[in-house]
Amino acid sequence: MIIDWVWLLMGACAVFALGWIASRFDIKQLKIENHRNPKAYFQGLNFLLNEQQDQAIDSFIEAVQQDPDTSELHFALGNLFRRRGEFERAVRVHQHLLARADLSAKDRHRAKFALAQDYLRAGIIDRAEDALKGLEGTALEPQAMLALLTLYERSRDWERAASTAKRLEALGEGDFSARLAHYWCEQASQCSNPSQAKALIEKALGCAPKNARAQLALAQVLHTLGQAEASFDALKTLIADTPRFTGLGAALLAKLATELNKAPEAFKLLSLSYAGKARLDVLEAMVQLSGHEGTKSSPHNDQSLYAQHLERTPSLIAATQWLRGESLSDSQTQTRILQTLDKSAIPLKRYRCAACGFEALTHFWQCPGCQAWDSYPPERIEEL
C-alpha cells in the first residue's frame, strides 16, 4: 500500500513537470511569433512609406501567414494589391475575409466595401453594384451611395444617378440640387423630341432655378422650337442670375437679337457684362452686333472694339482679330502673320478644367478627364 502511494506521488510530480515544460515551450514559441509578426508588419509599413510596394507586399504576406486571423493586415494587403492593379489578388484577399465566421459585423461591412472597390477598379460593374447595395442600412451606406453615384455617372445612367443623389440628400450628405439639374440636362441633351427636352430642362430648373446650364439649355431648346422671343428672355435671365456665364450664351443672344431686331438691347446687355469682366466670347458677340441698326451711331465698330480690348488687357486672340480687319500694304506678309498668330492662339482658346487641367476647345459641364462637375471656368485659358 505504501508502494502505491509512492508511485502515485511520483506520477503526479512527473505530470506536473511535463506540464510546466510544455507551458514554457508554448510561451517561448508565442514570444517568438509575437516578435516576428510585429517585425514583419513594421517592415511592410516602412517599405510602404518609402513607396516600395513590392517589398511591402512581401512583408505583409509574411505577417498574414504568421497570423491569419489579423483582419487589418488583410485590409492593408488587399488595398496594396488594388493600388498595384492586381485586382484578382485583391478580390481573393477580401473574399477570404468575408468567408471568416469570426469576423465582426463592422469588419464584414468594410470587407464588402473594399471588395466593391476591387470590382469597380477591375471594371466588373454588376458585382460592384451588388456589393455596394448590400451596404444599405450600415454605417458605410453614405460611402457606398457615393460610390454608386460615381458608377451611375460613368455609365451615364442618369435616372438611377438622380435617385441615388436624392437618397444621399435624405442621408444628410449635402445638397445635390446642382447635380440633379445636370442629370436632367443630360437626359434632355439625349432627347430627340424638343418638347420632351424642354420638360426635362424645366424639371432641372425646378430643383436649381439659377443653374447656368439649365438656363442656357432652356434658351437653346426654345430657339429650336421656334420660340425666339422666349429664348431671348431666357438668355436675359441667364445674364441677370449668373453673369459669369454670359459668354457661353453670347453667340446665341447675338443671333436672336438679329432675328428679333433687338440688336441695341442685346448690345447694351453685352456691354454691361463686358464692363464687369472683359470676356472674349462677349466681345465677339458685340462685334457681330456692332454694325446693326441702332448701334451704328455708337463709336463702336469691329476694329475699335478689338483696340479697346487690347488697351484693357493683352490678348493674342484679340490682336489677331484686329489685324485681320486691317489692310496692310504687303498683303502676303499680312497673310503669313495671320496664319502664324492663328496657330499660336489655338491653345489660348481652350477651356481648362480647374480640377485636373484637362483642356478642350469646347466648354464641358462635366470634365471628360476627372469626371468633376462644374470644374470648367466659363473663361478661356487666355482670360484666366
CATH architecture label name of the domain at 43-170: Alpha Horseshoe
Shape: elongated
Query: Proportion of β residues?
Result: under 5%
Q: H/E order of the elements? A: HHHHHHHHHHHHHHHHHHEE
The strand count comes to 2
Termini separation (Å)?
107 Å
CA-atom Rg in angstroms = 34 Å
Question: Whole-number average pLDDT?
Answer: 82
Low-confidence stretches: 27-37
Largest sheet, described in full? Answer: 2 strands, antiparallel
Strand order of the largest sheet: 1-2
The CATH class name of the domain at 43-170 reads Mainly Alpha
- How many H/I helices? 18
Q: What's this entry about, in short?
A:
This protein is mainly alpha-helical and about 375 residues long. The protein has helices at about 1-50, 55-65, 70-85, 85-100, 105-120, 125-135, 140-155, 160-170, 175-190, 195-205, 210-225, 230-240, 245-260, 265-275, 280-290, 300-310, 315-325, 330-345, and strands at about 350, 360. It has a domain at about 45-170: Alpha Horseshoe (Serine Threonine Protein Phosphatase 5, Tetratricopeptide repeat), CATH 1.25.40.10.
Q: Would you give an account of this structure?
A:
There is one protein chain. The protein has a domain at 43-170: Tetratricopeptide repeat domain (Serine Threonine Protein Phosphatase 5, Tetratricopeptide repeat), CATH 1.25.40. The protein has a two-stranded antiparallel sheet. 33% of the residues are buried. With 384 residues, it is mainly α. It contains 18 helices and 2 strands. Mean pLDDT is 82; it is low at 27-37. Helix 16 (302-312) runs antiparallel to helix 17.
